[in-house]
Design a protein that fits this description.
Length: 236
Amino acid sequence: MSTSQKVVVVTGASQGIGAETVKAFRKLDYRIVATARSIAPSDDPNIVTVAGDIADPATARRVIAEGVARFGRIDTLVNNAGVFIAKPFTSYTSEDYAVMTGVNLNGFFYITQLAIAEMEKNNSGHVVSITTTLADHAIDGVPSVLASLTKGGLNAATKSLAIEYAKRGIRANAVSPGIIKSPMHSAETHGALGALHPMGHMGEMSDIVNAILYLDAAPFVTGEILHVDGGQSAGH
């Protein structure tokens, strides 16, 4: 088994930004472990897919174990899986809370812990998480307390990881998007959602993918929360 090619794990990889991230890393000749709740097997021998709920620690164990068994190493983890439920704060249910903390927090914790343990073996690696600019800049009319609670927590955790592992060759960064054109948003909503950004339009999935690739290729950047949000975090 050759271990010269770098290996990236991508969560939430079946559609949208996750699927585009998989394509982008394959163009760079990375081997890929792609996971999502429902994901089809790949015909590409350099892509292994693992279906499962990222909130379940057993899924995290299978993803990392499969990556190491097939490719021998883990170089980059892209924590892309996420859930956004927009409700007035007092309308959230315990089920909403369980889903959002499960995917956004548990889904980060379990797989990141295991991935970093593998990265430590090579004294190198990179964790990049997808968060939200709403954690920095709340928007009137877009109720987002649980998104801010969970994704804002990932921003803070990213900085903590960056400092804890800086001398061990492992970096941690985050991409903080605005509202992105993806399967999450139907076309008829694009005009209204675009108007929420100072630049007047939504972002493209390629904007987020390019930010991920930049951070992965930037060896002197760690602890960075890179806002790709059409100016939202700067103000209105």
